[in-house]
Amino acid sequence: MTKVLTTDNLSKKYGLLKVLNGVSLSVEKGSIFGILGPNGSGKTTTLSILLDVIPQESGSFQWFEEAPNYQNRKRIGALLETPNFYPYLSAEKNLQIAAQIKGIPYTEIEGVLKTVGLFERKNDHFETFSLGMKQRLAIASALLGNPEVLLLDEPTNGLDPQGIAEIRNLIQSVAEKGLTIILASHMLDEVEKVCSHVAIIKKGVLLVQGKVDEILSQEPMVELKAENMDALLVALKENPLFIEIKKELDKYVVKLSKSISNAEINQYLFNKGIPLTHLASRKKNLEKQFLELTN
Ligand SMILES: Nc1ncnc2c1ncn2[C@@H]1O[C@H](COP(=O)(O)OP(=O)(O)O)[C@@H](O)[C@H]1O
Ligand SMILES: [Mg+2]
What we know:
The chain is α/β, with parallel strands linked by helices. It has helices at 43-50, 70-73, 91-102, 109-115, 131-143, 161-176, 188-194, 212-215, 229-238, 262-271, 286-294; strands spanning 3-14, 17-23, 26-28, 32-36, 58-63, 76-79, 149-153, 180-185, 197-202, 205-211, 220-226, 242-248, 251-256, 276-283. It has a 6-stranded mixed β-sheet with strand order 6-7-8-4-9-10, sandwiched between helices. Strands 1, 2, 3 and 5 form a 4-stranded antiparallel β-sheet that branches. Strands 12-13-11-14 form a 4-stranded antiparallel β-sheet, covered by helices on one side. The protein is elongated, with a radius of gyration of 24 Å. Bound molecules: adenosine-5'-diphosphate (ADP) and magnesium ion (MG). The site of magnesium ion has 4 residues, from helix 1. Residues 14, 19, 37, 39-45 line the site of adenosine-5'-diphosphate.
């Protein structure tokens, strides 16, 4: 696996306050990597260090398996804070100014406008854009220079549901083109919907990192009810697939050791002479799991 980014024990202090404490991340090429944590946990600080906006206190990081340098910096596109676009200028003109600053030919502008779905609106003034369109233009600007990695800090903050959906779709379509995305967010829901990988940080400490579906995995549980609840309990206890059995009102809530289908559960119990009167899957609330991790 090619590593796009690795950080080794990154730490940062502001005065006496330690805002990053030994954060070691590993981002694989092609992933959509979410840095998830509540406000103030150190996400923006981390991204700022990675972009050489501020220095780290200690620790190190590598881009593309090299020490950071001018050449590999050009392979990174970033949206750390909302860029200052000129309200009375068109989308295209604003991108021309951004391209000029970055030393990128205007010929790239058409492509990035198409990527973010604003090509048809290229002649419209920036001030006439919705918040979602403004944010898409900012992403277009970050895509100038054809970067291999895109860093986004809270890209859907302040957007309405439609704008949020647009940005999430855009992130996924950009990733499908092969870009690696690193996305800081305080929203569990966003990371769960958009990201392939996640690192959860709290107060500058990395709690866990890995694949989203493993880390934010929903433990499989089922609710079961039968005419004969005692016989049901005996049958459940006999099978190691059922690792935890709790009585809740008139039913059992059973934790499964792995994901098996409801049909298999039904079959097993039927073979034991226990017809079920109720069988339903139950997912552990993700919000609750995130809070458990960060509390
Ligand atoms: N320039 C600064 N001076 C002092 N403290 C700062 C500065 N920037 C950030 N902090 C503090 O560092 C911590 C992490 O902030 P930040 O990285 O912005 O968190 P996040 O992006 O996860 O919300 C917070 O406690 C914040 O108040
Ligand atoms: Mg932040």
